[in-house]
Amino acid sequence: MTEKLQFDQIYHIYNRGNNRENLFLGKENYLYFLKLFSQHIAPVVIVYAYCLLPNHFHFLLRLKSKAEILDSTNLT
User: Fold this and answer.
1) What's the whole-model pTM score?
2) Which of 7, 11, 22, 64 could join 54 in a cystine, given CB atoms 3.0 to 4.6 angstroms apart?
3) Rounded to whole angstroms, how far apart are CA atoms 19 and 46?
4) Which distant-in-sequence residues (6+ apart) come within 8 Å of 49 by Cβ?
5) 3-class secondary structure for 22-48?
6) 62: helix, coil or strand?
7) Is 2 exposed, middle or buried (0-12, 13-18, 19+ CB in 10 A)?
8) What is the reported pLDDT for 17?
9) Is residue 66 a contact partner of residue 6, using CB atoms and an 8 Å limit?
10) What's the pLDDT tens digit per position in 36-66?
């Protein structure tokens, strides 16, 4: 069962390619992944550490509090 993420909690997020196949084939793949991460995920988390490897990745992050997210998006 999938649980909802909770505000102000720390998570280890990871993923690996099917059959251990590479997710990142070259520098441009890493850069594209980080660009999307910075656009869509970074605004709502604090990143403590990350590691991108050819066939998997790891992120240690904290989901910001609801107030932090609202403050950073100017929706208050």
Assistant:
1) 0.84
2) 22
3) 31
4) 58, 59, 60
5) CCCCCHHHHHHHHHHHHHHCHHHEEEE
6) strand
7) exposed
8) 96
9) no
10) 999 999 999 999 999 999 999 999 999 999 9
